[in-house]
Amino acid sequence: MHSLRPLIPILLAAGILLGGNGLQGTLIALRGVQEGFPPASIGFMGTAYFAGFLIGCLIIVRLIRSVGHIRCFSALAAVAACATLVMIISVDEFTWIGARFVSGFCFAGLFTVVEAWLNSGVANSDRARVLAVYRIVDLGAVTGAQFLIPFFGTEGFTIFAVMAIMITMSLVPVSLGDRSNPAAPPDIKLDLKRAWTISPLAALGCVAVGMTNSAFRTLSPIYAQNIGMSVADVATFVSMSIIGGALIQYPLGYASDRYDRRKVILVTTTLAMGSAAAIGFLAGDSRMLNFAIIFVFGCFAMPLYSLSAAHANDRAESNEFVMLNAALMLFYSFGAIAGPFTAAAAMEQYGPHALFHFSTAVYVAFLAIIVWRMLVRGPAEDGERGRFTALLRTSTLFARLAQWQTGGSRPGTQQKSGNACTYEAEDLTRTPPTGMETPNKRS
User: For a designed S-S bond to 432, which of 25, 67, 238, 436 qualifies (C-beta 3.0 to 4.6 A apart)?
Assistant: First the structure.
């Protein structure tokens, strides 16, 4: 724990941001319905968010290199807080769409800064522990923040002020916790064509998951409210899916390490499709039945991104991990841009359960792709397969943070016998900045 102590302020800032971002996504949908916004407009707010997020992922490293971590973080946090307050000053759907685009850009940058800072401050021997803590922070912050909505209510100014306060408070640990300014990360070299060549299944899987998960994240509060749930029930409904995904992700990953990963993806997608169809056709307005099935949906829908990425890493060269996973996150973003608006249009036309009819249709298409790829290409050889790693979709730099795991081998590609995996030089020789040294740093 001593070696992780210098990173506590950054992890604290990450928790505040993750919680505030999760809170904002749910609140926008609930408050939008109260203000009379049509589902299509609320869906387009989700599309705008992910469009801003995509642009932020592409350019934010250059901004960090220009002005440094602290200035970049401070500027983005200030703009994100202002975008939050603008939404209550001007309750207009077009203003909210613009504000969500700005928020997406800012949060992409904020998470990139946090993960670049963590990457600079952690020794290779400590990466597994930092990743575990980071995931716990993510789960706890996003789940806990949902229940601020029933506590403060969705009406009036207060809940927007709480969100702005959370974003602003993330500046405190960053500003006071560490006086260093670590070296800016190198630009991520993106090659979407190469990523597609490595694994069309993984690329299309990330697009499919982006469509369904972003639609669920944006519109599930509307679904829950429209079938008669209270605000507290809506928070519980969203949280059940998050908890389900967190609990089952590692057992699925373990199974995918032992068997053909595509078969695990096939079974997982089938169960995600089945649970989406069960909500769409069977759950009706039963509160407990919806809670139970959405937990199952989260168990199988949420881990599909990491399973797809692990399959792609099995096919990649040992020095392609960072590039490949950054590219897969962009594929996810492409799907996430399309998903909310398309699903919202379906809900407007056919009712709230169309959200899960949409997800069912996407999973059916993805199942066809999995079967096609299994027919045209054999499984990865045992010597090429690596270990599953749960990946967060917070920034393109998360892959750089996750590339070293227990024993020094990166996720997705084991060290081949007789040939040690190679990594980019800056990741092996990086020295933590002053104030963030770790005693176990390898020479």
Answer: 436
- The DSSP H or E segment spanning 328 is helix 321-350
CA–CA–CA angle 416, 420, 423 (5° rounding)? 115
Taking all residues of the chain, what is their mean pLDDT, rounded to a whole number?
83
Which 3 state secondary structure label does DSSP give 419?
strand
3 state DSSP class of 286: coil
Which candidate, 130, 23, 113, places its Cα nearest to that of 61?
113
DSSP letter string, 253-269: HHHHHHS-HHHHHHHHH
CA nearest to 17, candidates 164, 214, 234, 213: 164
Residue located via tokens 């507290």: 232
Distance separating the N- and C-terminal Cα atoms of the chain: 20
C-alpha distances in Å from residue 259, one per residue of 38, 302, 317, 378, 380: 45, 20, 21, 13, 10
> pTM for the complete prediction?
0.84
Domains, the chain? 2-177+186-422 (1.20.1250.20)
Q: Residue 182's pLDDT is what? A: 66
